[in-house]
Amino acid sequence: MTSRFDAAPAGPLRIAMISYYLPSESKIGVGYQVHELANELARRGHHVDVFSPCRPSPGSVYHHVHIPLTGRLRTFRFAMIMRRQDLSSYDVLHAHGEDYWMWRRRVPMHVRTLHGSCFEEAIHIRGLWQKLRMVMLGLSEVLASIVADRTVLISPQTRRWTPWVRTVIPNGVSISRFASDGNEQAGRPTVLFVGTWKQRKRGAELARIFAEQVKVEVPESQLRMVTQDAPEHLPEGIVVLGRLSDDELAAEYRRAWVFCLPSLYEGFGIPYAEAMAAGIPVVASPNIGARFVTAEGRFGELSSMADLGATLVDLLKSDDRRAELARASRIRAQEFDLVGVVDRYERVYRGEL
Question: Contact at 8 Å (CB) between 56 and 64?
Fold first, then answer.
């Protein structure tokens, strides 16, 4: 494949990966994806340095370069600091999320992954300042998609704001970590939620619907919520789990009967893919990420908020429908296997994709 840039060399690569988020300090899915990608690349023999204002994450096998920040406008100040870094010794510069204003070639291959769209988030986020911040970051995303050697989208549906970007590589999850044979499933009907109580993940609305509708129809049911911002006192049957380790989270997926994340917006939605890897039926609102991961509802249930309670009740009561969706989930999860995702990024780094 010919291109306008020089591909990274053969053999092990020196990769500079940039992310404002990492799991050590942030719940944002971008940070988890960067952590997983960097670990898998390092295990393959590449030298990976992750530049981030977050502290090192437990379980990392890559190198971490801490960029400490304090005060306001941290995202933009991080961009300015990264622009002054000497990255000339690397074969690949791979920026995630905001591009950090890396608008001048410094390495043989500059890759930019757009994890959704800040313009799309601006539509759904609350608060004038937050909307303005997202619009400013969105303009940076558009410029970055033009100046990078290769820009990658995480789903075709995110192409709305950058229609000229053609390369799509979904987010990846470790199939082996989440895979289940069904023997760990809870003895009572269990719905799992992974996200935030407030804002676009709509954990609070799911809890209300569960208490008012699902619990009434399925009295023995339980909603288990992996979230850190829920109030202390909640209705019966709702359990807040807080922050979990990777192994604890995988165990929660394996014990659930149904996974539900009714987000207003997801560019991809890593928890959907994690649930599928565990063979758990997925119920989601029809945001663009859920539409892609479920293939427009072929591999999961897409539901409006008005119908969400009824959808959950029907699934919890139907062994046959849950078994059908569990089989579909395992099939679809293979498309998001971390091993295959990193294979494709290696091809991008070398100019072969």
Answer: yes
